[in-house]
Amino acid sequence: MQLNLINPQQTIVQKSLRQKRAELRIETLELEAQKRAQKRSIKKVPKFLTEQQMKQLIDLAKKKKGRHANRNVIMIMMAYHFGLRVSELCNMKWRHVNLEDQVITIERLKEGRHRSDILTGEQLRRLKRLKRQPGKAGEYVFLSQEGAPVHRRHFHRIISNLGKEAGFPFAISPHTLRHSCGYKLANDGRPTRDIQAYLGHAQINNTVLYTELSPNRLKGIWRD
To answer: Which residue among 76, 125, 192, 211 has the highest number of C-beta atoms inside a 10 angstrom radius?
Structure first.
């Protein structure tokens, strides 16, 4: 009868190798997790327009002539004033707008909270004028020449062309208007949580970018 004798030294070596492989695997997983976390934490600083630049953009849009001139102005004003995403703006329906009570209901995307807000006097007048235009009695507020909702790419082109004409130092898009709203609120000293609610951010990490950019966020800590 042949006995299979186990070499204790060989067993120890095998256990040691398995343990080292397991430790190496854990270290690899930890490094991969750290890299993913670093990528998530690195945020591109958003480009925005100052209040003066936004006024310049709106004034430039007001000088334009044509059938859709008023539509374009009110789209720019509302995108900036309410910090709207381009899809939220282009998909806005007349049922969201109460012209009698001067109230707008903003239906946020990306799990953001819906909210109601007050229209300014100029916004109200321009929306009433828009609704009186022939062919504007449809479901959507902002319509194209064909009577369909304004496409996001078309609005992007409008904003991009105006930005070039204004001579801004960087290319702008509809989302630049949303960033400009967030920056203005932060520069006005609004609490971060309030800005988060106003812009409909599901995560506050997206909101703190504006407060970090604001030069007024630490104003008043030292007094003479």
So the answer is: 76
- Is residue 67 in some structural domain? yes
Domain membership of residue 180 (yes or no) is no
Contact 163, 65 (CB under 8 A): no
Contact 102, 118 (CB under 8 A): yes
Q: Is residue 210 part of a domain?
A: no
210 annotated active-site: yes
Burial 58-84 (b: 16+ CB within 10 A, else e): eeebeeeeeebebbbbbbbbbbbbbbb
User: Of these residues, 55, 110, 114, 129, which one is catalytic?
Assistant: 110
Active site residue 136: no
Mark whether 183 is an active-site residue. Answer: no
Count of structural domains within the chain = 1
Least confident of 26-35, 72-81, 132-141, 158-167: 26-35
Q: Is 67 a catalytic residue?
A: no
Confidence of residue 30 (pLDDT cuts 50, 70, 90): low
Which residue out of 108, 126, 184, 201 is catalytically annotated?
Answer: 201
Give the pLDDT confidence score for residue 5 in this predicted structure: 52
Q: What is the overall mean pLDDT for the chain?
A: 83
Instruction: Choose among 82, 142, 141: nearest CA to 112.
Output: 82
Domain that residue 127 falls in: 51-172
- Residue 36 in any domain: the answer is no
Residue that wins the pLDDT comparison between 23 and 3: 23
Task: From the candidates 68, 71, 85, 108, give the one annotated as an active-site residue.
Answer: 85
